[in-house]
Amino acid sequence: MVQILTGHGCFGKYLHQIVGREPSPSCHECGALQDTAFHTLVECAAWGPQRALLENVVGPVSSLRSMVEAMLQGQHSWLAVTSFCESFMSQKEAAERSREEDAYADPVHRRRTGTHSYRHRGPL
What we know:
The chain is an all-alpha fold. It has helices spanning 2-6, 12-19, 37-43, 48-58, 64-71, 75-101, 116-119.
């Protein structure tokens, strides 16, 4: 849920502009020009069935703010929102891992290996 609220997750815009692991900010699921948390939550047709289940419980979700307001309606609403978020985020993360592991994929998709984790560690 934090990834959705911050926009820092498996979203094309974030992976392209911040992380540099996507050649464009487009959505892999529907082809939209910008894959953002808002796009995934409100617009992307690929997540329509999951969104419909959520909206049956909490009502229309038209923004990140309305999602947070829905979460605060009570435990039943909270569980519906978390279930929705976990459902599509786990699928987006699995798709990203597949792109990273694909030997034939554009090199920008592949996970970077090397000393990155050691850069901030300091002297041993």
